Amino acid sequence: xxxxxxxxVTKQSEIQIAINEVERNLAPDVVRIRYEIGEDWSxxxxxFFRIVLTDExxxxxxxxxxxxxxxxxxxxxxxxxxxxxxxxxxxxxxxQEVLQEPAWA
Amino acid sequence: xGLAADLLDDAxxxxxxxxAEDRDSCRRRAISTAYYAVFHLLxxxxxxxxxxxxxxxxxxxxxxxxxxxxxxxxxxxKKTPTPVEAQVMDxxxxxxxxxxxxxxxxYDMGWKLVGTDVANAITLAETTFSKWHAVQSNDVARDHLLxxxxxxx
Lengths: 105, 153
Prior knowledge:
The complex is a heterodimer of chains A (105) and B (153). Chain A is an alpha+beta fold. Chain A has a single domain, classed as 2-Layer Sandwich (Alpha-Beta Plaits), CATH 3.30.70. Chain A is 44% helix and 26% strand. Chain A has helices at 12-25, 55-60, 62-76, 79-82, 93-99, and strands at residues 30-39, 45-53, 85-92. Chain A is globular and about 50 Å long. The termini of chain A are far apart. The mean pLDDT of chain A is 95. In chain B, 41% of the residues are buried. Chain A binds chain B through residues 40-42, 44, 46, 53, 58, 62-63, 66-67, 70, 74, 78, 80, 85-92, 95, 99, 101, and chain B through 66, 69-70, 72, 74, 78, 89-90, 93, 96-97, 100-101, 103-104, 107, 112, 114-117, 119-120, 123-124, 127.
């Protein structure tokens, strides 16, 4: 039996280009964006973005900056066509310094 | 206030308590409650338009979380959605995000929650309330709510 893989798996260079552009456009608020493709809680394919923000952006302008990140990525990547649902999670530089999670580094 | 608005208020209180007492359980409940606030916002809106008041609770129970998340929506012009379509897309994205976060908050004990996760859930729920209230009477929004209920095109 063949395993289904979403087309997002074969479009990782396209995804990285989009990420680079969003990082550039939203600097310095957006420090870096990491991602992985996998199954979510319901077994559906998903792309999980992990976005590190400056402390100031996370504390004072989260709504504005998060919205720009979500729209910036969705504007360049057609998630439904890629067969994935996009999740975006945010944390500040200080929070990541405490947790030291490699997936966010 | 309706249940949805009360839940949003509860989510804010839980978030504040989680911060004040550094309690992970309150932070998790805040995220979970923020999702349920948005869930009930949409369900309440749908059933409020059902003319038989005594049947509304039963109708509300027909909503299925995953089906709501998976209801498809495509703007007429993908590159340039209308303002209403853009608002509906924001509601859809926020609903899916909150649902995923709710699941992790309730079941994934390995999730290292941070304050920004909670703040983002509350913020997303608040903006979803505003956006939905702005478009809820529009045909595009009503049509999508019907899809979330499970109606096929």
